[in-house]
Amino acid sequence: MATLAVTANEIRKNIIRAVHSAKSGHPGGSLSAADIFTYLYFEEMNVDPADPKNPERDRFVLSKGHVAPAYYSTLAERGFFPKEDLITLRKIGSYLQGHPDMKKIPGVDMSSGSLGQGISTAVGMALAAKLQGKDYRVYTLLGDGEIQEGQVWEAAMMAGHKNLDNLVVIVDNNGLQIDGNVADVCSPYPIPEKFAAFNFHVIEIDGHDFDQIADAFAKAKECKGKPTAIIAKTVKGKGVSFMENQASWHGSAPNDEQFEVAMKDLEQ
What we know:
Layout: H1 2-22, H2 27-44, E1 59-62, H3 68-78, H4 118-132, E2 138-143, H5 150-161, E3 167-173, E4 176-177, E5 180-181, H6 182-186, H7 191-197, E6 201-206, H8 210-222, E7 228-233, H9 256-267
Parallel strand pairs: 1-2, 2-3, 3-7, 6-7
Antiparallel strand pairs: 4-5
Helix pairs in contact: 1-2, 1-3, 1-9, 2-3, 2-8, 4-5
């Protein structure tokens, strides 16, 4: 797991580089999800940068599309496109827009950004696999603030009803959204019980512990007849001292001085 930790740290560095270069973006939730992204793309998913449209590949939908910096950094680290392009994030003419675009970015299976909608797409993909007799699996990452959206629960109801055991829903439970603590804005708790009520196999983990992450995805594959929800407890801004557990870094970019501090934190 040490190699995965090193990879996740490189992804975090590239998140900071990209958002700093853009002077805008969403570093907090990108940093909290970096370990999940790392495990998905370097261990879990059947994907090939040389053949990103292979019909037999596993699918991933970033439901909380604003954490595109983490998604792009992971795809670049995995070899889907050059890492040098990350500093063009959100710039005019760049294919790396503020939210993922499946028509322009290699490895992106679904354009996303309108919160609550990505899980519906993932459910549709998983259902399509079942109807076509395909073995590919579908993964989707949601924010804990995002699950305040009603469409999330409509999709969850369908997934449970259709017994989509090829679907894994991951909730990045960092506890914070743009307006503050999720429990204060509109509490989604208890999250595990809600998914369980929709016929999900529910697993709770520390979203920064690769052993727990590995075990959760292994159990998801073993589960038959139910979709799996992995509730990953994480730290918003993970790895950057002044960003950790601060809602203000949901959608703010570091200035030059803050960039230097952040990179030193990650170098350590």
